Amino acid sequence: MVVLRRLAGLALALFVSSLLVFAFMQVLPGDPARVALGLNAGEEAVARLRADFGLDAPLTERYTEWVGGLLTGDFGTSYLSRMPIGPQIADRFGVTAWLVAAAMLVAVVIAVPAGTFAAWRHRRPSGVLVSAASQIGMAIPSFLAGILLITLFAVHLRWLPAGGWTAPVLDPIAFVRSLILPALALGLVQAAVLTRYVRSAVLDVLREDYLRTARAKGLRPVPALVRHGLRNASIPVVTVLALQLTTMLVGAVVVERVFVVPGLGSLLLDAVAARDLLVVQNVVMVLVVAVLVVNLVVELLYAMLDPRLSGRR
Fold first, then answer.
1. 287 with 264: CB under 8 angstroms?
2. What is the model's pLDDT at position 170?
3. What's phi and psi for 168, nearest 5 deg?
4. Would you call 84 helix, strand, or coil by DSSP?
5. What does 252-301 look like in DSSP terms, one character per residue?
């Protein structure tokens, strides 16, 4: 019953989001047909192209046709390249998914032990040092981290490429080398943010009575925390991870530009610059769907981590 209610909420959110995305695209200035033909094109040629694009149809008809295409996997045709949009988005989304997944792995691998260590030794210089480092990391934007990483590892040390992308099926080693720097640029900043939340969550757990009881029964501090504390500490951390995942999807737009990665963000920026509004509309909707699905998965994870929470939501 809970899952059905969540799915119904997801469907409603998708419907409202599609209306907002479509409406926003309609109020943007400029005519895609005139942009495609150039400013010196005649009115008759522009009118014919608008008819070819379906821009002269009523808004309700265009909206239903667009949503119907999304449901069937038909994303339409680009106004400028005249190529199907669906395959372009699928290819670019795969690149962005690799980047975001690698960045999330970097963030979790760094933040969980660092945050736990900072909480465990929060009254000692080593714990304070980790906390201070995370504060500094939070102040560095991803694009600046990317530039610093390129300067160090690509320009001076020449260990890794400064940009570009190689598909994993073509050359796995080149793929990993091209993924390391953008994943670090995107993941290190989020690792600093996540470290603060992990530290706070573990500190709260360390003050709980059940953990004191476990230690009073003879469990050593670290096993007591691992066996009885980390699961409860993971509940607020999962929430932050969901927010960070959506942040990474947006942050990937800039990072992909810095490292010349042909992902979904690059496709979006190129389409905005070229006034290819149908591509923009579809890419934005895909990002919205990804964010809403992530939020749904997190809602379901709550019930798995703590069944008591399922009845309150």
1. yes
2. 86
3. -65, -30
4. strand
5. HHHHHHHTT--SHHHHHHHHHHHT-HHHHHHHHHHHHHHHHHHHHHHHHH
Q: φ, ψ for residue 275 (rounded to 5)?
A: 60, 30
Q: Is 236 within 8 Å of 201 (Cβ atoms)?
A: yes
Q: Is 150 helix (H, G, I), strand (E, B) or coil?
A: helix
Closest CA to 118 of 198, 233, 238, 225: 198
- What does the pLDDT read at residue 57? 80
What tokens does 193 get? 């943010």
pLDDT for the residue numbered 214: 61
Cα separation, 221 vs 119, in Å, equals 13
Distance CA 195, CA 216 (A): 29
Torsion of CA 227, 198, 133, 183, to 10 degrees: 100
Q: Which two tokens stand for residue 103?
A: 């960045």
Q: Is the dihedral of CA 125, 131, 136, 142 positive or negative?
A: positive
pLDDT at 305: 58
CA distance 283 to 80: 16
Coil vs helix vs strand at 141: coil
User: What is residue 313's predicted lDDT score, i.e. its pLDDT?
Assistant: 46
What are the tokens at 6?
């969540």
Note whether 82 and 52 are within 8 A (CB): no
Write down all domains in the chain, each with its CATH number in brackets: 2-85 (no CATH), 92-312 (1.10.3720.10)
DSSP 3-state assignment of 32?
Answer: helix
Residues of the chain predicted below pLDDT 50: 311-313
pTM for the full model? 0.80
* Furthest CA-CA distance within the chain: 86
